[in-house]
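Reopening this ticket.

The earlier resolution said the output was attached, but the attachment link was broken on my side. Pasting everything inline this time so it's all in one place.
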Amino acid sequence: MKDRLTPLTIPSRKGRLAIVTGASSGVGKATARALGLAGADVVLAVRNVEKGEAVAAELLAEHPEGSHTVAELDTSDLGSVASFADQFADRHVDILVLNAGIGGTRKRQESVDGHELVMATNYFGHFALTARLLDALRRASRARVVALGSIAARAGHIRPDDLDLTRGWSSSRAYSNSKLAMVMFARELQRRSSAAEWGLNAHAAHPGWSVTGLFPDNPLVGVGQVLAGGVHLMQSAADGAQPVVFCAASRQAAAGGYYGPIGPLATSGPVGRAPLPRRARSERALTALWEATEELTGLSFPR
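Inline output:
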C-alpha cells in the first residue's frame, strides 16, 4: 500500500540509543527506519534474528550512515526479556518503543511462563522490559517510552484478578485487553515517573488501521482500503507509524498523551490526540492493573 502522508519532520536523534521491539516488520520496521534516518542508533529487538538481520541490511543499504543492530527478544518469554535487558545494564537508553505484538490465537494458548499468550506477548513482556531497563532509561536525559495501543483498546475490559483470561477467553477479547493494558501502562508509568522523579516521558500511540500483516486472515482488508467517495480507511505501515515516531521524537508530544490518526473513524490520517478508552481514565483502575502485573511478572518498580 502506498504512503499518503508527508513524512514527519523530527529533530536529529544523533547520539541517541533507541530500542524498537518487533522491528522486523510493519509499524516496528517503519519506526526503526524513521528513527535511523533521524540519526539514532537503533536496536531492532526481534524474535526472529535472521529476519531482523535482513531488515537491518535493507535499512543500511537505504541509509549507509545509519546504525541498526539486531538483538534477540521474545516478549512472551520473561527469561528472554531478562537476557535482552542485561545487555544494557551499563548503558543509557533514550527511546524505548514497545511495539512487538501478535494479533491473536485460534484457541487459548499459554506462554512458557504460564500466562495467556496474547497478553504475555503484547503487555506483560513490555512491562517487564521497561522495569528491567528503568536504570538505563533514567541515565538518559528525558528518555521516551512509547507503548503501542490500538483502536481495539476501546473494547477492552480488564479484570485485574484475571489478566490471563482464564474465564471467558476469546481471541478478540485477549487482543483488546492487551492493548488497553498498554495504554493504561503508559498512563500509569507517566504518573509514577512524575511522582518519583524518574525523568521519563511515557506516551501511548496507536497506528489506526494499518496494513501490517498482524491480521492476515481479516476479510475486511480487501474492502477497507477505500470507502465510498474516496475516503481511505486503511493506511500503510509507514503512515501508521507516524503517531509512534511522533511520540518517540517530536518536541510537541505531551508526556502521558495518547496519539493516533485523526482521519475518518480514526483509522487513518495525520497524527493528533486520540481519545482515551474510558477504562484508561480511572486512577484506581490504573493502579489495580499495575499492582496485579507486578505480582504476575514478579517484577516491581521502585516506590
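Reporter confirms the inline version is readable. The chain is about 35% helix and 15% strand. The chain has one domain: 17-297.
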